[in-house]
Amino acid sequence: MSEMNMVQAINDALRLEMRRDDRVVVLGEDVGKVGGVFRVTAGLHEEFGEDRVLDTPLSEGGIIGTAIGMALYGLVPVPEIQFADFIFPGYDQIVSELAKYRYRSGGEYSAKLVIRTPVGGGIRGGLYHSQSPEALFIHVAGLKVVCPATPYDAKGLLLASIRDPDPVLFFEPKRVYRAAKGEVPEGDYTVEIGKARIAREAVPSGRKDDRMVTVIAWGAMLYEAIAAAEEVKKKGIECEIIDLRTLWPLDIDTIVASVEKTGRVVVVHEAPRTCGFGAELVSLITERAFLHLEAPPERVTGFDTPFPYTLEMEYLPLAHRIVPALEKVAGF
Amino acid sequence: MSEMNMVQAINDALRLEMRRDDRVVVLGEDVGKVGGVFRVTAGLHEEFGEDRVLDTPLSEGGIIGTAIGMALYGLVPVPEIQFADFIFPGYDQIVSELAKYRYRSGGEYSAKLVIRTPVGGGIRGGLYHSQSPEALFIHVAGLKVVCPATPYDAKGLLLASIRDPDPVLFFEPKRVYRAAKGEVPEGDYTVEIGKARIAREAVPSGRKDDRMVTVIAWGAMLYEAIAAAEEVKKKGIECEIIDLRTLWPLDIDTIVASVEKTGRVVVVHEAPRTCGFGAELVSLITERAFLHLEAPPERVTGFDTPFPYTLEMEYLPLAHRIVPALEKVAGF
Amino acid sequence: MHQTGSRGTSSEPDRLLRALGDDDSLVSGLGVDEGTRRALFSAMVRLRSFDDACVALQREGTLPTFFSSRLQEGVICGAAQALADGDAVFPTPREYGVSLQRGVAAEDLAAQILGKASGRQAPCYVSFRSAKVASVSGIIGAHLPHAVGYAWSARVRKTSHVVLAFLGDGATSSGEFHSALNFGGVMKAPVLFLCRNNGVAISTPVARQTASETLAEKAHAYGIPGLLVDGTDAIAVYNAVRTWADAARHGGGAMLIEARTDLLPDRDPIARLERHLMKDNLLSEDAARTIDAEARAEALAAVNVAKGRAAPSRETLFDDVFAVVPRHLVSQRDHA
Amino acid sequence: MHQTGSRGTSSEPDRLLRALGDDDSLVSGLGVDEGTRRALFSAMVRLRSFDDACVALQREGTLPTFFSSRLQEGVICGAAQALADGDAVFPTPREYGVSLQRGVAAEDLAAQILGKASGRQAPCYVSFRSAKVASVSGIIGAHLPHAVGYAWSARVRKTSHVVLAFLGDGATSSGEFHSALNFGGVMKAPVLFLCRNNGVAISTPVARQTASETLAEKAHAYGIPGLLVDGTDAIAVYNAVRTWADAARHGGGAMLIEARTDLLPDRDPIARLERHLMKDNLLSEDAARTIDAEARAEALAAVNVAKGRAAPSRETLFDDVFAVVPRHLVSQRDHA
Ligand SMILES: Cc1ncc(C[n+]2csc(CCOP(=O)(O)OP(=O)(O)O)c2C)c(N)n1
Ligand SMILES: Cc1ncc(C[n+]2csc(CCOP(=O)(O)OP(=O)(O)O)c2C)c(N)n1
Ligand SMILES: [Mg+2]
Ligand SMILES: [Mg+2]
Questions:
Q1: Whole-model pTM?
Q2: DSSP 8-state assignment for residue A38
Q3: Which residue has the CA at smallest separation from atom 13 of ligand 1?
Q4: Quick one: pLDDT at residue D6?
Q5: Does the C-beta of C198 come closer than 6 Å to ligand 1?
Q6: In the predicted model, what is the mean pLDDT of residues D63-77?
Q7: What is the rounded average pLDDT of the residues C91-117?
Q8: Which residues of B are known to be catalytic?
Q9: Average pLDDT score over residue span D280-286
Q10: CA D201 / ligand 2 centre spacing (Å)
Q11: Which of A169, A44, A149 is nearest to A98 (CA)?
Q12: Which end of chain B lies in a sparser environment, N or C, as judged by fewer CB atoms within 10 Å?
């Protein structure tokens, strides 16, 4: 065990897996000698050489497309997209090729790779360095989508993602790249894909006017949910916080069990509200736990605007915006 | 008035608007001399010449990107993407450029254009000639999304879309391109963007065991919803069918009014279920009409798989799949 | 054989590589053995017969669409003949038939085309892992970077395998063409981009596709060699691909070949090779008739066998989205 | 002036167009008037001063990021100087300063950079409609097809306006570079793609960006001319752009210019032009000092004025998504 931040934990996972499995290769813009703009791949080029760690030309379609070819050969590429905002020139390769390769070939081929990319706001990055595009990938059948909130989960989930037989989008919450610190085992371990984590358990006080709320969050917003929960605790609102960790396939059982217990739900995400993953969560909860719901589920999300620059702290679903939603569902 | 099919109605709208407004230009793969693979632009090249109707190289990013430049100049381009499945190589231009141009430039610029593209299955087209990608555009702030179901609406909505100040994605349900026929006025008229249409009104019989259901559909699936409604009528289930026509911005008032009347909802769409537009509709209805809901809203959608070839009639949410959902919500 | 370096073609865009002269005899100095020439002929006839059978299926409405390879056999078969077993091919729908030459049984090909295998893809979007033929995409150009990644992997894994990627003239406009050739050049990948220039993409002539004089010269933009070859001359294609492959197996890199199939008035590659073989006494009229008859019989039998196969059942809709059918798909499969 | 045709460059990739000789005097035959040379110098000094002021803002933490145009002024100012008023410019973030030369007040530029205008974009992603400077995208290469569409429109609308699009060496790898140059060639659009080759994209050297020997020769792939120019020689850039623009106004089409800014040991375009002007007695030490002092004063004043402007209020978050704020955004604005 040693304390690591999330950048270190991901770097550790990559190094460990590249040592263990020589099919694993890393590629992307500036991932080589300089170790990536966030230093997540630092030292890998030095240790594994340029046949395992490739600086590529500036083309996300080329990066993902080439990685698919490597995967078809039998390697296990872990391409990096410098910011998730830059993934769209490679979107066709992901949704038309990567996601569909196994299906369209009748299972003859599969293209196993893990796309790593930093997501989210709060770093003064503006429109093109802040977005959270998860819903645009969850809607596309054939992709798994992961987003850790802690260094422990980041390492364990990345190792699990690389070993998983399916393509994985691995979203890294860059706002807490360095801020999220924690104990991380030094050796090999995995965190199961598709399993959520109860980050905070709701303990009923037993008082008659006590209200419980399930809060669903992931990535950097987990910490905002926790802050909001502390805040409303004073007002007799007890939160159970679910850190999804894997967005798809979803751990619906953990969610439904919690909602059956609390009867109230708030979903938090940075992406715009409309057609965001929150909509799917609300729909699934309504379908599966309708008769347990004491109030309509609330969504606290980014607004339906592009991601702004100076006003990002108004845009993001931070604690100050989660608190009123908790009060609203608790008071319904 | 004359009877037209949808292809003719769209062609009529384009011709009318190109005559009226010389800023309107049409561009895309094979839209010129041959008039498009579905013949929607037939005759336009002949009438307006090659400075108004352009056959382009095979690059959707180039088509949309070039159209954005024309729009910045002050023209009103109406690019065609041959099948919606081919829109993804141009996805970055749509979500990163088109949708954000006005916002990022602080309102200095706007890129007004209408992207026309055929969507949907049922034509034995398989994986890459059948998809319905609406949710991937509705999630992106800055775009309007339209999908007519009738020739009348196709012409009126296309004219409204071209005259609207914002970028519009105009999805044409190719399965009913020729099958949908109807009276279409010969001259100029518009159908307002953002207004749904009650395609079938639910008339309560007054019987005690009578159940009413709101069915939300659009495009080719409207006809399946109508067929399903006829089917369940025999069993005492009375459907109110809303043809959305404009998917975004949504006519939530019409939906909520209907749900307040019926208490039950079924949403139908061809796209995969997870994170489809149905999820947003269910969430909005749950948020706005929670206390009126007699049953959890049901979604009847394409499955969470790529679009298949031989089994497309199993995949699509046709009447035979809508009927059980109607029975389920009616019997909840 | 005239092969341009990374900047030769553009100064001689009219230098079209040919093996067969106007008089149907081999241009001197091109020693292609008899067996190869005969094999090429048989392969082309076999493909043509299969293609004809499929076109008939389309006419009768059994197939909703079909990408005929008629008149493109010189490129397809010439190139396939030049490869070794472990080499991989990344085709477009129009080279669906390349698998025949790589050992796939005609009935298995017909089964995929008729939707009797997985039934997931429209006709011609086939896949044959056993033959190292990649899965065909519906997105023009999208497969090209895959070929690069695959070829690079074969190189770093220290094999001598090379990769052949087909594309049409229209595909040269796609963004992925650019990425693929650029990555191929930078990564020195043993990949051949073989562009069948039939002069048109659906209705769009090459002159509206690009303003460059040839497609071959686009290679220069990527620091790789470009070559223009007569695509109706199967031996010329074979030679060009073979020469490239021999070099690529031993450290050579990416290359772009433009094979024109729309140029000569006499555009039928089968008729041309037939005249050549007869002239060289490598083929008699009788033998030609037999080859043709056998090929037609094989194609019809294949189609019949495939037609008789069972169509995939509804349950299979949910397979192969992921390696293991996940719970949400189990529930969609079982409860919808 | 040596200008290559659609196939000249590749055979002479080392022909670097220069106006200033090693001895700092104008190569004979290049008649660039005194006023233009002086204006170029002032423009570069002004941009450098503004840039320095912004770099200081970045150092103090006021700006989270900044794309410095230091040492790139020869390309930026040389090109801008060669345009006419109605011409349009499509820049990358690193040419944020082109607006200064096109009449935008330094304080308005500073206000956008400091987030005091709409506050929607990070520093350098500016827009000035009044100056016909397009909105800068965060997606490398994405603006290039816009420039083509705009230029084509200017042509079919029968104006004589032309369009200048800037890009970096890294951007040549983007798919949209390919689309834009290809569309530009086919549509014969009066658009100039001016590539600042500073040798690197973040950390990636040009040699890993592409295997082509020069970037200029990529033009051939699109049937348009390519030209290599010394980007630290503002007069050479001015000449090249001016020559192209004169032709483009009268029916000429697209072109690619590669301006190298990393090549010569003496890479400061301002120092070079200063030496030249002094040598030609067009600039005294005193005058140079005054120009510099005025530019620095202007930059500092601009930054101060901009700092003092009000930041956009929360309500503005919801403007400009659509032409009219739609109901769902009204409700997000008023109830969240
Ligand atoms: C991205 C994309 N855009 C459009 C299409 C539709 N389409 C299918 S084939 C074709 C023309 C291809 O022409 P070419 O590459 O020359 O091949 P050919 O059919 O002539 O062999 C087009 C435009 C597509 N499949 N993918
Ligand atoms: C599509 C995309 N991918 C990656 C980036 C991140 N990025 C920003 S600047 C840059 C390098 C650009 O290099 P170049 O084009 O040479 O311009 P320079 O900065 O050298 O002037 C990169 C990779 C981006 N903005 N957009
Ligand atoms: Mg073609
Ligand atoms: Mg650079």
A1: 0.97
A2: T
A3: C201
A4: 34
A5: yes
A6: 97
A7: 98
A8: 129
A9: 96
A10: 6
A11: A169
A12: N
Residues pairing with A80 in the sheet: A28, A116
SS3 D222: helix
Which ligand has the nearest atom to the CA of C170? 1
- Max alpha carbon distance in chain D (Å)? 70
How far is A106 from chain C, CA to nearest CA, in Å? 5
For chain D, how many residues are written? 336
The token duo for C128 is 């044959």
Give me the pLDDT at residue A204, please. 81
pLDDT at D302 over 80: yes
Q: What is the ipTM of this complex?
A: 0.97
Cα A55 to Cα D204: distance, rounded to the nearest angstrom: 7
Structure tokens at C286: 């009788």
Q: How far is the CA of A295 from the centre of ligand 4 (A)?
A: 55
**Quick check: A266 and A302 in contact, CB under 8 A?**
no
Q: How far is the CA of C168 from the centre of ligand 3 (A)?
A: 5
**Which two tokens mark A264?**
């109230």
Residue of C nearest to A250 (CA): C328
Question: Which uninterrupted H or E stretch holds B230?
Answer: helix B221-233
Phi, psi of B114 (to 5 degrees): -125, 120
Judged by DSSP in three states, A193 sits in coil
pLDDT at position B207? 75
Per the CB < 8 A criterion, the answer to whether B63 and B27 are in contact is yes
Contacting residues of B for D150, CB less than 8 Å apart: 69-70, 72-73
pLDDT at residue D27 in the model: 86
Residue of A nearest to D114 (CA): A310
The strand ranges marked E within C19-158 are 88-90
What is residue C6's predicted lDDT score, i.e. its pLDDT?
34
Residues of chain A with C-beta less than 8 angstroms from the C-beta of D138: 85, 126-129
User: Per the structure block, which two tokens stand in for B267?
Assistant: 């949403």
Calculate what percentage of chain D has a pLDDT beyond 70.
95
Residues D325, C74: Cα–Cα separation, whole Å: 60
Cα–Cα distance for residue pair B289/B287, rounded to 1 Å: 6
* Closest Cβ–Cβ partner in C139, C204, C316 for B89: C139
Choose from B274, B305, B328 for mutation: most chain C CBs within 10 A. Answer: B305
* Nearest C-alpha in D relative to B65: D145
Res. C330 pLDDT band, cuts 50 70 90: very high
Kindly report, residue by residue over A279-322, the tens digit of the pLDDT.
999 999 999 999 999 999 999 999 999 999 999 999 999 999 99
- Answer whether residue C4 shows pLDDT above 50: no
| pLDDT level of residue D14 (50, 70, 90 thresholds) | low
Please list every residue in chain D whose beta carbon sits closer than 8 Å to the beta carbon of residue B65.
142, 144-146, 148-149, 176, 179-180
Give the per-residue pLDDT at C7: 32
pLDDT tens digits, C283-310: 999 999 999 999 999 999 999 999 999 9
Q: Best of B105, B164, B253 to disrupt the D interface by mutation (most D CBs within 10 Å)?
A: B105
Could you tell me which of A243, A222, A112 has the C-alpha nearest to residue A167? A112
Place of tokens 């950079």: D113
Minimum-distance CB partner of A286 among B138, B139, B296: B296
- Tokens standing for residue A289: 């736990």
Which chain D residues are closer than 8 Å to A121 by Cβ? Answer: none
Whether residue A92 and residue B88 make contact (CB cut-off 8 A), yes or no, is yes
In which residue ranges of chain A is pLDDT below 70? none
- As a whole number of angstroms, the distance between CA A51 and CA C187 comes to 10
> Whole-angstrom Cα distance, residue A297 to residue A326?
10
Q: What is the pLDDT of residue C9?
A: 37
Phi, psi of D332 (to 5 degrees): -65, -35
Give the Cα separation of D72 and D77 in Å (integer): 9
A139 counts as catalytic: no
